[in-house]
Specification:
Elements: H1 2-15, E1 17-23, H2 27-38, E2 45-52, H3 58-68, E3 72-77, H4 82-92, E4 97-100, E5 106-107, H5 111-122, E6 126-134, E7 140-142, E8 179-182, H6 183-188, H7 200-211, E9 215-226, H8 231-239, H9 243-257, H10 261-281, H11 285-302, H12 316-327, H13 330-351, H14 354-367
Parallel strand pairs: 1-2, 1-4, 2-3, 6-9
Antiparallel strand pairs: 4-8, 5-9, 6-7, 6-8
Helix pairs in contact: 2-3, 7-9, 9-10, 10-11
């Protein structure tokens, strides 16, 4: 009898997925996310929710759900950011696979079942799948290209980064919630999230991309990312404007340790420029000026961008913005950005039907 119970326990552990969800002040949308996770068709779950020092009713709601469903475990910590919260959940995880989800998104009921089956079938280190976006008015639209079909070798059921058709770090996005990871792979390489407040996914995802020997892609939209008003995210980025730089330097250091930097230097430098510009363009006020000055004085140089010739860069617009920053002041840059955005919006409005134009406007409103 004891042997049978042991075998059953071992079988259940092999099927167990640890779902790790950092939670911080999301009382108004948390129930929808938890219902979406608990409603997954893959039933062998442990849902580890880490309350990261919430000051609203998020923790009470977590405890209410935990009292109703034994699969939920609630951990608490003083506010330390999503990276520290995810590491806390990772340390507590007992499942054979890991899913790192955000506390304000929703998920197709078969998301974990399909990703688990795909990982098992191909003995994959991680599985990547697609997502879309929805907003306050419940509109839904395609998000950024989670699966870059031009770069990923979708014709191959399993591959490593060398099979990607160039621009490796643009082949997928640097967030963790659209992937399912094999726990043994993550722990064998001691993969951790940088314990910072922003851009904590970038290092984990791209380190995993380079280290994985078996990657598989599930070409289905399984995650619905909630687009919320950008004020809270902008405030967080303003308080920690250099988190992205810490993640990029950590990734570069890993590439060098693994002996992959020379092979990936061109892709890395181009991605580092692109993401530095994105980070700058999403900062408000004084933080924008601080980062602008640092990009000019040391960050571009330290990331290996400053000494590269024009032909080294894949994206002409990124290069032009990089050159503009080196030559002009922050105010001039903002004026140039305003001019570019105005031209793009005018062109877009002329091309689309009125109703779609309103939806695009709403999306830009909540994103920016």
């Amino acid at each position: 009898m004891s042997e049978s119970r042991s075998e059953l326990k071992s079988e259940r552990t092999a099927e167990l997925i640890s779902v790790i969800i950092p939670v911080y002040n999301v009382e108004g949308v948390l129930a929808e996310t938890l219902d979406s996770v608990l409603g997954q068709t893959h039933r062998e779950l442990e849902v580890i929710c880490i309350d990261d020092g919430s000051t609203d009713g998020s923790r009470a709601l977590l405890e209410q759900y935990a009292a109703q469903d034994a699969r939920i475990r609630v951990l608490t910590q003083p506010n330390a950011g999503a990276g520290a919260a995810r590491n806390r959940g990772l340390d507590a995880a007992q499942g054979a696979y890991l899913s790192f989800l955000d506390a304000d998104d929703t998920f197709e009921p078969e998301m974990l079942a399909l990703a688990y089956q795909r990982c098992k079938r191909y003995d994959a280190d991680f599985c990547l799948f697609d997502s879309d976006e929805f907003g306050v008015e419940r509109w839904r639209t395609a998000g950024p290209a989670t699966i870059n079909k031009k770069l990923l070798p979708l014709e191959q059921p399993v591959f490593d980064f060398r099979a990607i058709k160039g621009d490796v770090f643009r082949s997928m996005l640097g967030w963790a919630w659209d992937k399912l990871y094999k726990t043994a792979f993550v722990r064998a390489h001691d993969l951790r999230f940088p314990e910072q407040h922003n851009t904590e996914d970038l290092y984990f995802v791209f380190a995993g991309l380079v280290l994985a020997e078996r990657i598989t892609v599930l070409d289905k939209t399984l995650v619905h990312q909630r687009i919320r008003p950008s004020t809270s995210l902008s405030k967080s980025r303003a308080r920690h404007p250099f988190d992205f730089y810490a993640s990029l330097t950590a990734l570069r250091d890993l590439l060098k340790r693994e002996g992959s930097f020379q092979e990936l230097e061109s892709d890395y430098v181009n991605y580092a420029l692109h993401y530095s510009l994105w980070s700058l363009n999403n900062l408000p006020g004084e933080a924008f000026g601080e980062l602008y000055d640092r990009l000019k004085t040391d960050i571009f140089a330290n990331l290996g961008i400053a000494d590269k010739p024009e032909e080294f860069f894949y994206n002409k617009r990124d290069f032009e913005r990089f050159r503009f920053i080196r030559e002009y002041d922050p105010f001039s840059y903002l004026q140039e950005q305003k001019r570019e955005v105005t031209e793009q919006l005018r062109s877009l409005i002329r091309k689309v039907p009125f109703g779609l134009g309103v939806r695009i406007f709403e999306r830009l409103r909540y994103r920016y």
